Amino acid sequence: MSNSSNERRDRAAAAKSAANLGGKRRERLIRIAGAATVLIIVVAIIAIAVIAKSSDTTTPVVAPTADPSAAVPSTAFPTDSEFAYGVPFGTGTAKVPVLQLWEDFQCPACEAVETANGAGIRELAASGKVQLIWRPTTFLDNNLNNDSSLRATAAWGCAIDAGKTEEFHNTVYANPPATEGDGFTDAQLIGFAEDSGIEGAALDKFKTCFDAGTYLGWAANSTAAFYASGAQGTPHAVLNGVVVPNDVLADKAKLDAAVASATTS
Question: In this predicted structure, what is the pLDDT of residue 24?
């Protein structure tokens, strides 16, 4: 074989080796980038949650006074329940772990968790692996000096009556205020109802419910329960009485493992 043939063979082998090495490097970089993205999301959730807990204002918003006799949405737990004012979701029964999730519709950390693993949380509930109880609170109204959490929660109550519990919940978190503190207008909340699939006579009933402030008292009662629970901010998840860290709540694999452990314990 000629020297030129040997050189061509050597160059081809070297090029193949370099290509393989480059491919491995690219794969490694992609894995590193993916892991970094997940880490950034989790760190952001934790950081935002701390800010949400520590924010304050000297001019609190005047909200309805908690009233145990106030109306509650059709599927919400009643006043005398262990999970008073909470909203159950999914097919979970008393035989599976209970996951309580305190949320405020204006909470950016709640939105971050919803983006990262909201589908995973709902999947656990829909498959009957947990009894998911959404527990609304409106504490950020005082921090942000508006009443948007209160009105959004009351609107959710009307959507619950319309059979759109999950849809309205998800729509609100998919449409956060452009700037924290801007809140939601009444028109936006009604638009969320329409986007949730409420239409026709059901939409008219929703508007009547919302305009009448039917569930403002329920929102106030649930917020009072939030303060009584000892939770310091949102999101605040409790699995069978044990607080779930936000980095676990936001990670499907970690939350699935926590639920599996709670199921067998």
Answer: 44
Q: Is-contact 88 132, C-beta < 8 A? A: yes
Q: Model pTM?
A: 0.80
Q: In 95-192, at which residue ranges do the beta strands (DSSP E only) sit?
A: 98-103, 131-136
> What tokens does 119 get?
């589908």
Cα torsion 68, 217, 199, 175: sign: negative
CATH number of the domain enclosing 113 = 3.40.30.10
Q: What is the DSSP letter of 243?
A: E
Contact 226, 137 (CB under 8 A): yes
The residue assigned the tokens 């998919």 is 174
Nearest-5° Cα angle at 152, 143 to 118: 90
Strand partners, 134: 87, 101
The total domain count for the chain is: 1
Q: How many other β-carbons are positioned within 10 Å of the β-carbon of residue 176?
A: 19
- Where b means 16+ CB within 10 Å and e means fewer, 216-245 reads bbbbbbbbbbbeeeebebbbbbbbbeeebe
- Sorting pLDDT into bands at 50, 70 and 90, what band is 15? very low
What is the spatial distance between Cα 171 and Cα 60, in angstroms, rounded to a whole number?
Answer: 27
Enclosing domain of residue 101: 3-264
Q: pLDDT for 74-102, tens place per residue?
A: 999 999 999 999 999 998 777 899 999 99
